[in-house]
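We append the chain.
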Amino acid sequence: MRVIVTRPTNEARQWVDAFSEGGFDAVALPLIGVLPPPDPAAVAAAWERLHTFDAVMFVSGNAVDHFFALKPSPALEFAAEGAIKPRAFVTGPGSLSALKRAQVDVGLIDMPDRDAGQFDSETLWAVVSHRVHAGYRVLVVRGAGSTAPSDPGGNGDGRDWFADQVRAAGGIVEFVVSYQRRPPVLVASELAMVRDAAADGSVWLFSSSEAIGNLMAACPDQLWTQAKAVVTHPRIAQAARNAGFSVVCESRPTLAALMASIESIA
């Protein structure tokens, strides 16, 4: 059975290797391109002011990787030996792994329990809401989307639900864009694979509604009435159904759960 992994290139490679080791015919079709930030100076400025924040919320592993790629070499924030220790908030295991690669002290990281039903802003808020009080300062590190250029204020885009909860609790929120997302340019061989995978029983793996939107934009005439998808969140499931996928299975975003979900709709 073929599994189409649609995550950005670096992440897709890891997932393809994992699925291949599990006995699946996995192939990568990255549907979101990831580029460095449009304004590296803004990220550098955020590092300079990091000591003024109580916590930094990273929306994804890419947000972590690109933010730390511009870390000043003497900075000790997020390190056990540092005097300034803002918390690091993340929604799931992928971002946690990125923080560990960046050598962030695990004692400074807050995230949902690994057994949580969902890894999202709502679940993270349930974990960290007790920390937030009037004047609590949170920096949200996220990306600029693929469907529109970054806004002039440099806030990027994405769900603001978490930021809204912080503000409602009296906290203060700022944003910085650490990476850009761009739609893919599919070559002829990839377009042929899309046509085949839409009808041959392949299972599409989506961890982003934006990836589905990019696929629809790249292949506007393709029908998806015979296509199958495994997705990692109810919002992504709705996007897949809206696109016309006939079989949509929701799964926790862990390797074991994804494999079981793929097998369930094979």
Observations:
- The chain is about 35% helix and 20% strand.
- The chain has two domains: 2-32+184-264, 35-182.
